[in-house]
Design a protein that fits this description.
Layout lengths: L1 E6 L2 E7 L7 H10 L7 E3 L14 H7 L4 E3 L5 H12 L2 E4 L3 H12 L2 E4 L4 E6 L5 H20 L50 E2 L1
Parallel strand pairs: 2-5, 3-4
Antiparallel strand pairs: 1-2, 5-8, 6-7
Helix pairs in contact: 3-5, 4-5
């Protein structure tokens, strides 16, 4: 789970949560214990699938536990990756948060499997430890793309009394300008850089 603030055209990724073999109730409890005031919660389209035991979908279960999810559109993995590439040019990662560092490391390691026999990369990304964080970021990008087209995402979702913008006052050069996201086939799924500003935000 990525925790995100939209500040004008910028996207601040302030926190990250990942766990294994945990139920929906665990994640919702974790969300409720975080010191954040939430706007919207987004989930992938398969959250609408009904469970065999209860007959309820996970989105209905979540609603009963106090979280009302919005559903991201169903796009192909490739379209989602392209949306993620576009979103990354606007993203700042909180490098002072250890969980964000973990999520960022996953984005860096997201890649396709290389076939040694045919010497080409598979069409789909390799499913490994980096997949969950990268998939969550992909759904974030898809939701942001959809809402930007419909006006659903605010230009600034932080109340004026809570804004902290001193880390952004200095003029910064865009490290992605005049550079292709995919400099080679090996870097097709490379999703970040290592440029860190003085306050610990990674661009």
């Amino acid at each position: 789970i990525w925790f995100v603030q939209f500040v004008e055209s910028k996207v601040h990724l302030i926190d990250f949560l990942e766990a294994n073999s945990k139920g929906l109730d665990y994640y919702i409890k974790e969300l409720q214990t975080k010191p954040y005031v939430y706007g919207d919660h987004y989930a992938p389209h398969d959250i609408k699938i009904r469970e065999y035991g209860s007959g309820l979908s996970r989105v209905e279960t979540a609603r009963g536990l106090g979280i009302n999810f919005k559903i991201t559109p169903k796009l192909s993995i490739e379209d989602g990756i392209n949306a993620a590439r576009l979103l990354l040019a606007r993203c700042y990662f909180n490098n002072q948060n250890e969980q964000v560092k973990l999520g960022l490391s996953a984005l860096k390691n997201y890649h396709r499997k290389y076939n040694e026999e045919t010497r080409v990369y598979d069409n789909r990304p390799l499913h490994d430890w980096s997949s969950n964080a990268a998939d969550a970021f992909r759904y974030l990008a898809v939701a942001a793309k959809k809402n930007s087209q419909t006006g659903g995402i605010p230009t600034n979702d932080i109340p004026s009394y809570a804004q902290v913008d001193n880390f952004e006052r200095a003029e910064r050069k865009n490290p992605f300008r005049n550079k292709s996201w995919a400099d080679s086939e090996n870097e097709q799924l490379d999703l970040t850089t290592d440029a860190i500003n003085e306050e610990g935000w990674v661009r």
